[in-house]
Amino acid sequence: MPTDWPVSKVTSGQAWVSCQAEYNTGEGDGAALESLAFFSVVDALSPCQKGGVLRLRYQGKIASDFTDLVARVADIAGRMGIHKRILDLDSAGGQVEDAIKAGDVIGAGGWTIWVREGSVCHSACVFVLGAGDNRMISGKVGVHRIIRMSSTATTRAELNEELRGVYGRVKDYLERNGVAVAVADLMMTVPNRRLRLLSKDELQEYGLDGTNAAQDDLDRLQLMRRCGGDFVMRRDAFMRSFDSTCKKAGAGLDDMQACGLELRTQFGFPDTKCPADSPLSEFDRMADVEAVPDDAGAPPDAAPLDAGAAR
Q1: What is the 3-state secondary structure of the chain?
Q2: By the 8 A CB rule, do 143 and 191 touch?
Q3: What integer is the mean pLDDT of 233-237?
Q4: pTM of the model
Q5: Which pLDDT tens digit goes with each residue over 297-307?
Q6: In the predicted model, what is the mean pLDDT of residues 139-151?
Q7: What CA–CA distance (Å, rounded) separates 217 from 78?
């Protein structure tokens, strides 16, 4: 069966793949990824298979090639059994339709999204941010009015009618990702040439920072079955404490992580029964990997790679 994976490259920005959750190490952002050919993505993610952790750093515009990037990395990560996935994002915005498509891929793939210090997430990028299972933000998040550059409107009434359908899809998207639809209403009031930065309080109020409320409901049911009620109660208590203690205004992402790693021991994490489900377990995975021989093989849930099955 021929490979159905059309030619694509990262042209609207720059992308890197790292197998480390931390970015302030000697590895930094990892290896550059430009070609999105099947085996190029396989080669980029193969070093991450052993540890089961990948961090995809992206700087640039939200466009169709960004959607391809996220979809193809998620596809290969799933085949390799890489379940700890971080999207380290820095984008001033782009196309709403592409942001929603990328967000749906992210929402189905268990991604954490970072906007680290010095990075931004503006305009259409906010829709990508909203799709993450968890979001950690130290950079700037801002919104403004959506405008379709291909519009043929000649009056405000025509423009409003044209945008009505777009905003309807945006609100549906926000609802299914646990984000307040008030974000779409706020966008309507901010001229496209300006930017409305959201405060920490607003990010939490709108459901754009921290745990995704929609995903959290599903996770709670699954965790209850898998790890027990005590685990869920301790996880909830940890998250509340993390939000109040570690997410201080001006705190860098690495400071938040260090705070969380120290804090979680007070709540009995990593849990002996469910270590992989414990908060910040991606950092434990990397510590464990150092003790595993290189010839130990792929994770047991990794599927064999077959280019003929690629999308």
Answers
A1: CCCCCCCCECCCEEEEEECCCCCCCCCCCCEECCECCHHHHHHHHHHHCCCCEEEEEEEECECHHHHHHHHHHHHHHHHHCCCEEEEEEEECCECHHHHHHHHHHHHCCCEEEEECCCCEEECCHHHHHHCCCEEEECCEEEECCCCCCCCCCCCHHHHHHHHHHHHHHHHHHHHHCCCCCHHHHHHHCCCCCCCEECCHHHHHHCCCCEECHHHHHHHHHHHHHHHCHHHHHHHHHHHHHHHHHCCCCCCCHHHHHHHHHHHHHHHCCCCCCCHHHCCCHHHHHHHHHCCCCHHHCCCCCCCCCCHHHCC
A2: no
A3: 92
A4: 0.83
A5: 555 566 656 65
A6: 81
A7: 23
What distances in angstroms separate CA 73 from CA 109, 207, 217, one per listed residue? Answer: 10, 26, 26
